[in-house]
Design brief:
Blueprint (H helix, E strand, L loop, with lengths): L1 H23 L4 E10 L4 E8 L5 E7 L4 E10 L5 E7 L2 E4 L17 E8 L4 E6 L1
Parallel strand pairs: 1-7
Antiparallel strand pairs: 1-4, 2-3, 2-5, 5-6, 7-8
């Protein structure tokens, strides 16, 4: 009986783990970047870096309530971390590593944009939008 239980665990556990990996591998293509300034003042020297690839996007100025956007050839989203720095009111702000989750409501058959929202309290969030 003990041998049967161990054999059953050895067969079932990988199958369950495999199912979990399939659910986590939900993927989408990214075709652009949007940085939103949701603060009351202008932002300067904004820099976004994709940690794993070293890709850097910079922007010199985004007015209060304004946006910066760019498009690029479609790329498969790989859940890489990003960090963002910017200056505002003579202060430099830097985020921790951030990750965007793929919301269930996104249509994975259509490309999305990576969106960074910079907020009044010196924080930023990253998300995917269509």
């Amino acid at each position: 009986m003990r041998k049967l239980s161990l054999m059953l665990i050895a067969v079932v556990l990988p199958a369950i783990s495999g199912c979990g990996e399939v659910l986590q591998s939900r993927s989408i293509e990214i075709g652009g970047l949007l940085i939103r300034n949701q603060t009351a003042g202008p932002l300067y020297d904004i820099k976004l870096k994709v940690e794993r690839t070293g890709t850097v996007v910079t922007c010199n100025f985004i007015p209060a309530g304004g946006n910066f956007s760019t498009e690029f050839p479609l790329r498969r989203y790989r859940h890489n971390s990003v960090w963002v720095t910017w200056q505002q009111n003579s202060r430099t702000f830097t985020t921790e590593e951030m990750y965007a989750e793929i919301p269930d409501m996104l249509d994975i058959s259509s490309p999305a944009a990576a969106v960074v929202i910079i907020q009044d309290n010196g924080t930023a969030v990253v998300q995917l939008e269509q």
